[in-house]
Design goal:
The structure holds two protein chains of two kinds.
Chain A (H helix, E strand, L loop, with lengths): L3 E4 L2 E5 L4 E7 L6 E6 L5 E7 L5 E4 L2 E6 L4 E6 L8 E8 L7 E3 L3 E6 L1
Chain B lengths: L4 E3 L2 E4 L5 E6 L6 E8 L3 E9 L2 E4 L8 E7 L2 E6 L8 E8 L7 E2 L3 E5 L1
Parallel strand pairs in B: 2-11
Antiparallel strand pairs in B: 1-3, 3-8, 4-5, 4-9, 5-6, 7-8, 9-10, 9-11
The chains are: A mainly beta, B mainly beta.
Chain lengths: 112, 113
């Protein structure tokens, strides 16, 4: 059974600071997704990582995937208040599977 | 494309009543997923369909829950009878065959009194 662990689950950081959210998973997979959820809203796709070493960047967020370590990171650079949200990673169970297994989410609060 | 469409957006009902949630996936997508999200349990996969066929319903909490997908553009999730512990946000998501990326609808916030 595929398990996905995120840490930290809660993160409070000051504007302008850098931080990294970690996503570990338990079985081999090379397909990982990051989603963002604003309070009271739906999940919005942020990044799609489909191979070992994949790196994607959008604004102040950068995601990477290390399939050998079964680890993805979401790095936040010079945080701003608008980044406050809950971030989920989701891992594919592999070829032929349609399911994604989601982590519990990291609730990020950026304090002015 | 309008994205995944869900209705109603909010539903308030009394315990014991039947509740039907509706979902229209993105046109051309042939996998559809129903999730439930609560503060306590997080995001849970209830059931998913591929080409209108239920593939895995192991996440459906109990017999009170049922889901159907009569055609490629419509799915329902029914709770009968509803209970207060069913209160949650229910999301529908869809994806394209062979690709995992799921696109989520706006959700239905269900409150059972």
């Amino acid at each position: 059974e595929l398990k996905v662990e995120q840490n930290p689950l809660f993160l409070s950081m000051q504007e302008g600071k850098n931080y990294t959210i970690y996503c570990n998973y338990s079985t081999t997979s090379d397909r990982l997704y990051w989603y963002r959820q604003d309070p009271g809203k739906s999940l919005e796709s942020l990044f799609v990582l489909l191979s070992n070493g994949a790196v994607k960047q959008e604004g102040r967020l950068m995601a990477s995937l290390d399939t050998k370590a079964r680890l993805s990171t979401l790095h936040i650079t010079a945080a701003v208040h608008d980044l406050s949200a809950t971030y989920f990673c989701a891992v594919s169970s592999g070829a032929g599977s349609y399911q994604l297994t989601f982590g519990k989410g990291t609730k990020l609060s950026v304090i002015p | 494309d309008a994205g995944v469409i869900q209705s109603p957006r909010h539903e308030v009902t009394e315990m014991g009543q039947e509740v039907t949630l509706r979902c229209k996936p993105i046109s051309g997508h042939n996998s559809l997923f129903w999730y439930r999200q609560t503060m306590m349990r997080g995001l849970e996969l209830l059931i998913y369909f591929n080409n209108n066929v239920p593939i895995d319903d192991s996440g459906m909490p109990e017999d009170r829950f049922s889901a159907k997908m009569p055609n490629a553009s419509f799915s329902t999730l029914k709770i009968q009878p509803s209970e207060p512990r069913d209160s949650a946000v229910y999301f529908c998501a869809s994806s394209l065959a062979g690709l995992d990326e799921q696109f989520f609808g706006p959700g239905t916030r269900l409150t059972v009194l």
